[in-house]
Amino acid sequence: MQRKVKAIFFDIGGTLRVTHPEEGRDMSKIQALMSLIGEKSDPLDFVARVHKGEKAYRRWCKPNYIELSEAELWTRFLLPEYPAPFIRENAITINQFWRESKPKYVLPDMVETMRELSKRGYRLGLISNTTSSVEGYQLLEETGLTRLFSSVILSAEFGRRKPHPSLFIEAARRAGVRADECAYVGDRPSRDLIGARQSAYAEVVIINSAGYSPDEYDPDDYDPEKDTHLTLRPDHWIKRLSELLEIYKPIKTAAQENPQKESEYKLFDVALSTMWHVGQAASFNETFELVRTIGISRFEFNHQVTPQLLATFDCNRNYISTVHDPCPAPRDLRALKNDDILISSLNEARRGQAVDLVKRTLDLAVSLGSRSMVLHTGSLQCDRARDRRLRQMYEEGQRGSEEFCQLREEMIAHRAQYAPAHLDAVKRSIAEIITFAKGSGVNIGVENRYRYYDLPLPSEMQEILDLCHESWFGFQLDTGHAHALETLGLCEKGVWLQRFHNRIIGVHLHDVAGITDHQVPGRGDVDFTAVGRFIPPNCQRSLEISASATVQEISACLEYLEKCSCITSF
Question: How far apart are CA 487 and CA 139, in angstroms?
């Protein structure tokens, strides 16, 4: 059940303060900056040079949601040609001159609105992406609001950028409330709406005040009123801060008597696949409410999500971080079950159909504001009886026998006959998908598979990854699939992590008992401590476990995975 809002957090730029588009830079500030560092060039040329550095910095920090301090920003990106010790020592002043060269104005109703919200019993705070570690504090001091704000989270000080959930969770902690007792007010859905949803905030408000500068928006941001194909929506859409007073009525101050009473709130940096939903609650929303109590606030849509189930999903209450191809499920589920719809198909019509399903999945990911998509590359059209027999022999305890080893060698030789043609089909398909996905803002991860006749094996994965070296295209590690093939002796132990750890953009976390996958982590044979040493901190993590797992087992495995450094908590 959704809790009542007790705290309201605000973005700064575009929310509390704006830049008017008709005003250029204050060149007196630029000249003061240049004088400080001894720069003798034309001021306009200098501004252009710093702008170029800013663009390079945005490209660098965006994939990992990292924010550098003023010292690191100016020495590494904006003024790298100057002596680093001097720039480091004067970085805050330099940054101040640069920021102040672009005049900014507090919204006319900002101060009174903040005072009234505080009077009504709400705790107030700032959560903002800013290259300044002092900007938020200066704003509050200049407006006389310092004592009203219980927490200030600035990315330059915190080290992370929105929409990373750690900023939102830390703000709630400092305010002494749970995340689901918080509201967030911002102007950029790509940062503010998605970040608050990932953090299980109770409500999100998007403001679009008059006089915004075009510079305030990223090219990949969207306007919820104009981009109607997007399903992710804020709870409220306002044009003036004072409209918040119509939304947030006075609350009882008694609710704040024991601020630490319910502040112990742990949120894990992992999604839960809707694979677990099967056989659980009647609707997705019920499922999501159930697991939110144990610290999961985002989810992965898998290929079992039908259009009917999708219709029951409330995207404004829950966040889908990852979508698994094909989603929603095609109408002809038999074709999917029989592997008739594959991007590896040698039948051009079926291959084209499979590519269209991938594009549809990507469109869904974009519409939900999802960060990533998992891609299956298909399988070989060949005799699979040997694979079934090998697995049966393993279950019968015959692993290592002469017959087992001989059958395995036959499988390897048989697969090698069919693989090249299908791999060529996969590469043609992925080339189309890459072209379609470029600029979507969605990461695509190619997954390693469970069956030996599935694509790709490690050598094939390398050829696929070589098709695109952009940061948004990479490897989706499936821990269970990797371990099962290693157990059968069909893959070298640890090969997936050792060869492709630098291309991992997503991880499916599940355990394997023998060769039975999708078990709760910690209940099988996968070495998750070894996994945790390899996976990068910025990749998308999803629990992909069977419906038989209980909520208690999931809760225990979250603590286990955190100890193994596979996931983190906020």
Answer: 59
